[in-house]
Amino acid sequence: MTIPLVVGIDGSEASLEAVDWAADDAARHGLPLHLLYAAAGDHEASAVISAASERAREHAPTVPLSKEVLHGDAASALVDKGRNAFALALGSRGLGDLADMLLGSVSLSVAARADCPVVVVRGAPEHRDGRFGNIVVGVEEGEGSGTALQFALREAYVRSCRLTAVHAWNPSSRALTTRPAPSWYAMEAHRRPPSQVLDDALHGMAERYRDARVSSTVIEGPARRALLDAAAKADLLVVGARRRQGHPGLQLGLINHALLHHAPCPVAVVPQI
Q1: Residue 192's domain spans which residues?
Q2: Residue after which a domain boundary falls, among 69, 89, 121
Q3: CATH number of 68's domain
């Protein structure tokens, strides 16, 4: 049985935008789409499911569609469903969020706990509808970006668009962290130029998706700013998330938090395997 792309719905316009995005992506990947409504009560469940189903069929009439209503905590239900999902798609804001919140609490909680990729669908229509023909993936030092790169390459492949791999490095962050001995990161950076970080990460990956157009960019400066700037002309921003040592869930970090709150396009958080 093919695992589905799951989209969380709550009746908000943001969740319906997530349904639109997820339906299109399910069609590209040849996946079934599963609509999940989870809440403490179910008096609005029928209307919410009906509206979401109509939106999904408008965008992808041939995609197999299933739906489910669960009672209880929405974030926990989505995390549990994500254990057997291609990805979870969520709106950036929910019905219960305060007006000044930039990202809904459910979306943030799911992004921090899920075992599968989580796509927070945000941004203007031109970013959600794939008009730029470009996906951006952040590449960090070490092995934390491997699964994020695979996800981004697969998305670029099914969309027949280009992939831009971005590695940002900040000279000040590579300065000495203790005195007099330099940090491991500073010593490694001296031996391994930033461009080599990208080359090593991309090595062999593109062979699996030979038709994907891949370019790489090294930017001197904070990663948050570099990725937000790159996402200004992107249909999707993909970042990796490490497992927290000794604790369940992911280590989103300050950069991923900032991207989830401020990115101009949908953001995919991909757990490190």
Answers
A1: 127-271
A2: 121
A3: 3.40.50.620
Model pTM score: 0.86
Domain match, 133 and 70 both: no
Residue pLDDT tens, the chain, 273 long? 689 999 999 989 999 999 999 999 999 999 999 999 988 666 788 999 999 999 999 999 999 999 999 988 899 999 999 999 999 999 987 655 444 344 678 888 999 999 999 999 999 999 999 999 999 999 887 665 788 999 999 999 999 999 999 998 876 654 433 344 444 444 454 456 777 777 777 776 766 777 778 898 999 999 999 999 999 999 999 999 876 655 555 668 889 999 999 999 999 999 987
Q: Which two tokens stand for residue 177?
A: 């962290």
Of 272, 8, 10, 241, whose CA–CA distance to 112 is shortest? 241
Tokens of 188: 């490694």
Contact 235, 134 (CB under 8 A): yes
- Tell me if the bond preceding 180 is cis, omega within 30° of 0: yes
Q: Which residues contact 76 (CB under 8 A, 6 or more apart)?
A: none
CB-based contact 205:153 (threshold 8 Å): yes
Number of folded domains in the chain? Answer: 2
**Helix, strand, coil % in the chain, rounded to nearest 5:** 40, 25, 35
Q: Which residue has the tokens 């990202």?
A: 103
Q: Based on the domain organization, do 11 and 133 belong to the same domain?
A: no
Tell me the CA distances in angstroms from 99 to 8, 103, 104, 204, one per residue in order. 20, 10, 10, 45
